[in-house]
Amino acid sequence: MYDLVLLTDSRFTADYILDEYSENVILEDGLLMCALADKGLNVHKTHWNDVHMDWSQTRTAIIRTTWDIYEDGNFSKFEQWLENVKSQTQLINEYSTVRWNLDKHYLIELNEKGIQIPPTIFIEKGDTRSLNEVLTTSKWQNPILKPAISGGGRHTYKLDNNDISEISPVYAQLIQEESMLLQEFQHNVVRKGELTLMVFGGKYSHAVLKKAKPGDFRVQDDFGGTVHPYSPSPEEIAFAEKVVSVCDPTPLQARVDFIWDNNEALCVSELELIEPELWFRNKSGSADQLAELIVKKYFG
To answer: Can you list the residues of the chain whose pLDDT is less than 50?
Structure first.
């Protein structure tokens, strides 16, 4: 019987390090596991789709580095796994939070609760309009197109309204399978980067600044983006904590990604509550901070 199982994907359960990417993942998972073990918990790590795992044999399970769930064929399996496991163990974050945060339609709810987001148009599955028709409706120059359910920059495109011939057939197939969203391009993501603030139990912990490589707009390291130390202003901290405060229940682990929009106002690009990279390695004691909250809430 485990107190907590840390969930990853199968690439990160090996005893050896494959590359720098997996080295960081294994380090991050290890920091949290050590912090939890130091507080007396019996901790185990496995991948979310481990067929040999009896999920009723753990009191809690924290979804950490399950970054393969957006790969082809895996998302529907992950949804099935969620439905199966929710009655067998306590998920961290809560099941309802995970379900809500899986689909970027959550941005609509954030906006309705007073949280600024980039101007966004949701294009629902099965929409029969061509990509060019959608773009004409938006009247935006070089908008961003992305799926409503995705991670790691999957099928994320910056569109040149004058030449979308390569993206149009991809879009035509995707929209028959899933919802998409179109967002006005916010130029500061290239000029200034994207702020990422870690918020544990509703309180700010630490931050990083992500920057795209020259000539790109995607800040993910998968596309050459880089991560830099960052000390946020009181305004930026307050904004991140406000974003998390509108969530019910308050998530224990949260990452608020936000940018300065075209009017220099702060706006949320993503709210990561499922399997966020939390950069424990960038701030000593941050893994202990999250571990303390877990112990207090579920084992106190």
So the answer is: none
Helices (H), 139-285: 167-174, 188-191, 234-245
26-60 exposure pattern, b = at least 16 Cβ within 10 A, e = fewer: bebbebbbebbeebebebebbbbbeeebebeebbb
Instruction: Name the one residue in this structure whose structure tokens are 């998530």.
Output: 251
Backbone dihedral angles phi then psi of residue 50, each to the nearest 5 degrees: -70, 110
Residue 285 has which token pair?
């004691």
pLDDT digits (tens, 9 = 90+) for 10-29: 888 866 667 877 888 889 99
As to burial, measured by CB atoms within 10 angstroms (0-12 exposed, 13-18 middle, 19+ buried), residue 234 is exposed
Q: What are phi and psi of 229, to 5 degrees?
A: -60, 150
Strand partners, 156: none
The residues with which 182 forms a beta bridge, in sequence order, are 121, 145
**Is the distance from CB of 70 to CB of 151 less than 8 angstroms?**
yes
Query: For 56-79, how does the pLDDT look when each residue is reduced to its tens digit (9 = 90+)?
Result: 999 999 999 999 998 878 999 999
Per-residue model confidence (pLDDT) at position 16 = 60
Q: CA dist 105 to 73, 84, 112, 136, 252, Å?
A: 21, 24, 12, 22, 21
- What lies within 8 Å, CB to CB, of 297 at 6+ separation is 252
Integer Cα distance of 203 and 283 in angstroms:
15
The two tokens of residue 137 are: 């409706």
Residue 292: partners with Cβ closer than 8 Å, 6 or more residues away: 39
- Tell me how far apart the alpha carbons of residues 40 and 292 are, in angstroms, rounded to a whole number: 11
Q: Kindly report the pTM of this predicted structure.
A: 0.94
